[in-house]
Amino acid sequence: MDKSNFKKRRGAGLISGLTLLLASAMPLAVTAADEAAAKQLEIVQKGIPHDAIFGINIVGKNGYASGGAGYILETKDGGSTWAKMESGTQVSLLGIGIGGDHRIVVGQQGTVLIQKDGKWVAGKSNSDKRLLNVDVNAAGLAVAVGEFGTILRSKDGGDTWEPKVLDWASYRDDGYEPHIYSVDVQDNGRIVLGAEFAYVLVSEDGGETFTLANKGEKSIFAMHLLPDGSGYAAGQEGLVMKTSDNGSTWTTLTSGSNANLFGIWASAQGEIVATGMRALLRSSDGGSTFTSSTDQEVVRNWFVPVAMGEVETKGDAGALVQQVVYVGGHDGVIARVLR
């Protein structure tokens, strides 16, 4: 086998390779006291062995999680509890987009699901490519991205789709079509994509054209952009990057980790949570410093998506709304990140 491009392309097996990676994990011996002190996750939902959660998206109290074998869960209380929904498919569902009244889920074999009248129905992507993520804005502009440079655009909330083909040879002499793992569609029509080779591509015109804003060697697996223009990306071998201008320029941060990082979430107050293979990184200062979790739930397992929900609790003083961060991953686990 020609291994000359192995390092650059090894992110391509993000989903299918997780099981093989986990098979080689060796349990670590710890005391009960050590485990209690290191605890950073509280499990709120768990499936059965070999279940998997690949996507979580929550807006306020309402949201969804998706995973292997057509798995979709719904929450109506900010992530505290989850109920299974019928998806009508058995393929892995890898990404979830929510914008306004639009809800879209994408997955393997070009699968697109759209929510209509509270039920998931199959859309027509006209593609057989693995779709790794999707986002949609309130006006119904949606972009799904996936393997080998796949970009699909919808202007009607996911009912119809058209491919957007880029001239990848203009970005790389070898002409590789990178896997695109992350997408952000903003209400003004600006679109930001994150991909292999640390590519960040930006469109200012709703996906008609794209310009290259960043490139490197490592894959970007996830991004989170905030309304104030700040944002973060995470990826291969501990890669964490930061933007302060809505994705136009990026700087690489020192994460202190070599783990493959699959998900990232950030707040306007500088909090960051990044998930990955036996890793959970946290920062409270906008990425100037990171700490790595030693929670055994983390170091023995993998987590992919990160999302924030709003949980309402009632007491003598009335209702209190708390922002809670969740991660999802192995065995269908959804866990609350403890403050």
What report would you give on this structure?
The radius of gyration is 19 Å and the shape is globular. Strands 1-28-27-26 form a 4-stranded antiparallel beta sheet, with no helix packed on it. It has a 4-stranded antiparallel beta sheet with strand order 2-3-4-5, with no helix packed on it. It has a 4-stranded antiparallel beta sheet with strand order 6-7-8-9, with no helix packed on it. It has a single domain (15-337), classed as Methylamine Dehydrogenase, Chain H, CATH 2.130.10.10. The N and C termini lie far apart (47 Å). Strand 6 and strand 7 form a beta hairpin. The chain contains 4 helices and 28 strands. By secondary structure, the chain is mostly beta strands.
Structural key phrases:
Methylamine Dehydrogenase, Chain H; disordered N terminus; 4-stranded antiparallel sheet; globular; 339 residues; 4 helices; mainly beta
Q: How many DSSP helices? A: 4
- Work out the strand percent: 35-45%
Q: Which runs of at least 5 residues are low in confidence (pLDDT < 50)?
A: 1-13, 15-28
Distance between the termini: 47 Å
The CATH homologous superfamily is termed YVTN repeat-like/Quinoprotein amine dehydrogenase
Count the beta strands: 28
Structural class: mainly beta
Q: Summarize this, please?
A:
By secondary structure, the chain is mainly beta. It has helices at 6-9, 18-23, 32-38, 296-299; strands at residues 41-45, 53-59, 62-67, 72-75, 83-85, 93-99, 102-107, 112-116, 119-122, 131-136, 142-146, 151-154, 162-163, 180-185, 191-195, 200-203, 211-214, 220-225, 231-235, 240-243, 251-252, 261-266, 272-276, 279-283, 291-292, 303-315, 318-329, 334-337.
